[in-house]
Write a sequence for this structure.
Protein backbone atom coordinates (compact mmCIF):
# COMPACT_ATOMS: atom_id res chain seq x y z
CA UNK A 1 0.00 0.00 0.00
CA UNK A 2 1.34 3.39 -0.99
CA UNK A 3 1.95 5.76 1.86
CA UNK A 4 4.09 6.43 4.92
CA UNK A 5 4.96 3.48 7.13
CA UNK A 6 6.17 3.92 10.70
CA UNK A 7 7.66 1.27 12.96
CA UNK A 8 7.17 0.36 15.71
CA UNK A 9 3.57 1.33 16.46
CA UNK A 10 4.05 1.14 20.23
CA UNK A 11 7.14 1.21 22.45
CA UNK A 12 7.88 1.45 26.16
CA UNK A 13 11.37 2.54 27.17
CA UNK A 14 13.11 3.00 30.47
CA UNK A 15 14.72 6.37 31.19
CA UNK A 16 18.18 6.46 29.62
CA UNK A 17 17.53 3.80 27.00
CA UNK A 18 17.98 4.57 23.32
CA UNK A 19 15.89 3.68 20.33
CA UNK A 20 15.32 4.55 16.69
CA UNK A 21 11.93 5.24 15.15
CA UNK A 22 11.74 4.21 11.53
CA UNK A 23 9.83 5.90 8.73
CA UNK A 24 9.62 4.93 5.09
CA UNK A 25 7.58 6.32 2.18
CA UNK A 26 7.06 4.80 -1.23
CA UNK A 27 5.63 7.84 -3.03
CA UNK A 28 8.98 9.20 -4.26
CA UNK A 29 8.56 12.31 -2.10
CA UNK A 30 11.55 14.57 -1.62
CA UNK A 31 10.70 16.08 1.77
CA UNK A 32 10.15 14.21 5.03
CA UNK A 33 9.28 15.38 8.53
CA UNK A 34 9.09 14.20 12.13
CA UNK A 35 6.44 15.65 14.45
CA UNK A 36 5.50 14.91 18.03
CA UNK A 37 1.95 15.23 19.34
CA UNK A 38 1.21 15.95 22.97
CA UNK A 39 -2.24 16.53 24.52
CA UNK A 40 -3.34 20.13 24.09
CA UNK A 41 -0.20 21.02 22.12
CA UNK A 42 -1.04 20.07 18.57
CA UNK A 43 1.82 18.75 16.45
CA UNK A 44 5.28 20.23 16.82
CA UNK A 45 8.07 19.82 14.31
CA UNK A 46 11.18 18.01 15.59
CA UNK A 47 13.35 17.69 12.46
CA UNK A 48 12.85 17.69 8.74
CA UNK A 49 14.66 16.76 5.57
CA UNK A 50 13.83 18.93 2.57
CA UNK A 51 15.66 16.57 0.25
CA UNK A 52 17.95 13.55 0.36
CA UNK A 53 21.22 14.49 2.05
CA UNK A 54 19.87 17.44 4.06
CA UNK A 55 18.37 17.69 7.54
CA UNK A 56 17.29 20.69 9.59
CA UNK A 57 16.05 21.36 13.10
CA UNK A 58 12.45 22.18 13.76
CA UNK A 59 10.77 23.70 16.79
CA UNK A 60 11.68 21.02 19.38
CA UNK A 61 14.90 19.22 18.33
CA UNK A 62 16.60 18.80 21.72
CA UNK A 63 17.16 15.16 22.68
CA UNK A 64 16.72 13.85 19.13
CA UNK A 65 18.84 13.08 16.10
CA UNK A 66 17.79 12.14 12.59
CA UNK A 67 19.19 10.34 9.58
CA UNK A 68 17.96 10.59 6.00
CA UNK A 69 19.19 7.18 4.97
CA UNK A 70 18.03 7.49 1.36
CA UNK A 71 15.12 9.09 -0.47
CA UNK A 72 12.63 6.64 1.07
CA UNK A 73 13.73 6.49 4.70
CA UNK A 74 14.01 9.06 7.48
CA UNK A 75 14.74 7.81 10.99
CA UNK A 76 14.48 9.54 14.37
CA UNK A 77 16.79 8.54 17.21
CA UNK A 78 16.47 9.09 20.92
CA UNK A 79 19.95 8.62 22.41
CA UNK A 80 18.93 8.76 26.08
CA UNK A 81 15.18 8.71 26.53
CA UNK A 82 13.53 10.94 29.13
CA UNK A 83 9.95 10.89 30.47
CA UNK A 84 9.39 14.25 28.73
CA UNK A 85 9.76 12.41 25.42
CA UNK A 86 6.63 10.37 26.10
CA UNK A 87 4.51 11.31 23.11
CA UNK A 88 3.02 10.17 19.84
CA UNK A 89 5.46 10.60 16.97
CA UNK A 90 4.33 11.15 13.40
CA UNK A 91 6.34 11.02 10.22
CA UNK A 92 5.13 12.89 7.14
CA UNK A 93 6.22 13.43 3.57
CA UNK A 94 5.38 15.69 0.63
CA UNK A 95 6.68 16.06 -2.95
CA UNK A 96 9.00 18.98 -3.56
CA UNK A 97 7.16 21.96 -5.02
CA UNK A 98 3.73 20.29 -5.08
CA UNK A 99 1.55 21.15 -2.10
CA UNK A 100 -1.96 20.71 -3.51
CA UNK A 101 -2.25 17.19 -2.13
CA UNK A 102 -0.97 18.10 1.30
CA UNK A 103 1.37 16.16 3.52
CA UNK A 104 0.91 12.40 3.90
CA UNK A 105 1.19 11.18 7.48
CA UNK A 106 2.05 7.81 8.94
CA UNK A 107 -0.16 6.21 11.57
CA UNK A 108 2.20 7.16 14.40
CA UNK A 109 4.46 5.61 17.02
CA UNK A 110 3.18 5.77 20.59
CA UNK A 111 6.19 6.02 22.88
CA UNK A 112 6.12 5.83 26.67
CA UNK A 113 9.26 6.52 28.70
CA UNK A 114 9.09 5.32 32.31
CA UNK B 1 7.73 31.29 14.06
CA UNK B 2 4.17 31.22 12.89
CA UNK B 3 1.34 30.86 15.41
CA UNK B 4 -1.88 29.16 14.36
CA UNK B 5 -4.81 29.52 16.74
CA UNK B 6 -7.98 27.44 16.89
CA UNK B 7 -11.03 27.14 19.09
CA UNK B 8 -10.48 24.06 21.26
CA UNK B 9 -13.88 22.44 21.47
CA UNK B 10 -17.18 22.37 19.56
CA UNK B 11 -20.30 20.39 20.30
CA UNK B 12 -23.16 20.07 17.81
CA UNK B 13 -26.17 17.86 17.22
CA UNK B 14 -26.36 15.45 14.32
CA UNK B 15 -27.72 17.13 11.20
CA UNK B 16 -26.59 20.62 12.22
CA UNK B 17 -23.75 22.51 10.54
CA UNK B 18 -20.40 22.76 12.31
CA UNK B 19 -18.06 25.71 11.93
CA UNK B 20 -14.47 25.43 13.12
CA UNK B 21 -12.40 28.61 13.17
CA UNK B 22 -8.69 29.25 12.80
CA UNK B 23 -6.38 32.26 12.58
CA UNK B 24 -2.96 32.21 10.95
CA UNK B 25 -0.09 34.64 10.77
CA UNK B 26 1.89 34.46 7.54
CA UNK B 27 0.91 36.76 4.69
CA UNK B 28 3.14 35.24 2.00
CA UNK B 29 1.86 32.67 -0.46
CA UNK B 30 0.54 30.06 1.88
CA UNK B 31 -1.31 26.80 1.72
CA UNK B 32 -3.81 26.34 4.54
CA UNK B 33 -4.83 22.79 5.31
CA UNK B 34 -7.55 21.12 7.33
CA UNK B 35 -6.68 17.70 8.74
CA UNK B 36 -8.92 15.26 10.63
CA UNK B 37 -7.67 12.94 13.34
CA UNK B 38 -9.82 10.15 14.72
CA UNK B 39 -8.92 8.55 18.08
CA UNK B 40 -5.72 6.54 17.92
CA UNK B 41 -5.18 7.31 14.24
CA UNK B 42 -2.95 9.46 12.08
CA UNK B 43 -3.90 12.65 10.27
CA UNK B 44 -6.10 12.60 7.21
CA UNK B 45 -6.14 15.56 4.82
CA UNK B 46 -9.68 16.89 4.39
CA UNK B 47 -9.17 19.91 2.18
CA UNK B 48 -6.93 22.88 1.58
CA UNK B 49 -7.14 26.46 0.33
CA UNK B 50 -4.44 28.64 -1.13
CA UNK B 51 -3.98 32.12 0.28
CA UNK B 52 -5.14 33.89 -2.91
CA UNK B 53 -8.57 32.18 -2.78
CA UNK B 54 -11.69 33.26 -0.91
CA UNK B 55 -13.66 30.04 -0.75
CA UNK B 56 -13.45 26.39 -1.59
CA UNK B 57 -16.26 23.84 -1.50
CA UNK B 58 -15.86 20.09 -1.53
CA UNK B 59 -19.07 18.10 -0.96
CA UNK B 60 -20.11 18.76 2.67
CA UNK B 61 -17.03 20.87 3.38
CA UNK B 62 -16.75 24.62 2.79
CA UNK B 63 -13.61 26.58 3.55
CA UNK B 64 -13.82 30.36 3.83
CA UNK B 65 -10.75 32.58 3.91
CA UNK B 66 -10.68 36.18 5.14
CA UNK B 67 -7.25 37.37 4.05
CA UNK B 68 -7.54 40.76 5.72
CA UNK B 69 -8.14 39.23 9.14
CA UNK B 70 -6.08 36.07 8.41
CA UNK B 71 -9.08 34.03 9.46
CA UNK B 72 -9.98 30.62 8.12
CA UNK B 73 -13.09 28.56 8.77
CA UNK B 74 -14.19 25.02 7.99
CA UNK B 75 -17.92 24.43 7.70
CA UNK B 76 -19.22 20.86 7.76
CA UNK B 77 -22.79 20.62 6.52
CA UNK B 78 -25.20 17.98 7.85
CA UNK B 79 -22.74 16.88 10.53
CA UNK B 80 -22.80 13.16 11.34
CA UNK B 81 -21.62 11.21 14.39
CA UNK B 82 -18.78 9.88 12.23
CA UNK B 83 -17.48 13.44 11.97
CA UNK B 84 -16.57 13.39 15.67
CA UNK B 85 -12.80 13.85 15.73
CA UNK B 86 -10.08 16.41 16.27
CA UNK B 87 -9.67 18.89 13.41
CA UNK B 88 -6.36 20.60 12.83
CA UNK B 89 -5.76 23.78 10.92
CA UNK B 90 -2.22 23.98 9.49
CA UNK B 91 -0.33 26.77 7.76
CA UNK B 92 2.33 26.01 5.14
CA UNK B 93 4.07 29.22 4.03
CA UNK B 94 6.21 29.13 0.91
CA UNK B 95 9.52 29.74 2.72
CA UNK B 96 8.88 28.04 6.03
CA UNK B 97 7.61 24.78 7.46
CA UNK B 98 4.15 23.42 8.20
CA UNK B 99 2.75 24.71 11.50
CA UNK B 100 -0.31 23.27 13.23
CA UNK B 101 -2.90 24.73 15.52
CA UNK B 102 -3.62 22.86 18.75
CA UNK B 103 -6.70 21.22 17.26
CA UNK B 104 -10.47 21.53 17.73
CA UNK B 105 -12.30 18.58 19.22
CA UNK B 106 -15.67 18.19 17.50
CA UNK B 107 -18.29 16.19 19.38
CA UNK B 108 -21.44 15.27 17.47
CA UNK B 109 -24.35 14.03 19.55
CA UNK B 110 -27.31 12.05 18.14
Amino acid sequence: NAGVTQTPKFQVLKTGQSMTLQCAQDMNHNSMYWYRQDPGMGLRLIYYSASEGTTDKGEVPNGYNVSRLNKREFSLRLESAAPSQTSVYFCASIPQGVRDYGYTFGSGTRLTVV
Amino acid sequence: GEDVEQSLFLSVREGDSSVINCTYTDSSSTYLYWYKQEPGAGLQLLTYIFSNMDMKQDQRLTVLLNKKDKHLSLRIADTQTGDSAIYFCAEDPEYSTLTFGKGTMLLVSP
The interface with chain A takes residues 1, 4, 31, 33, 35, 41-45, 48, 88, 92, 97-103 of chain B (CB under 8 Å). The radius of gyration of chain B is 13 Å. The mean pLDDT of chain B is 92.
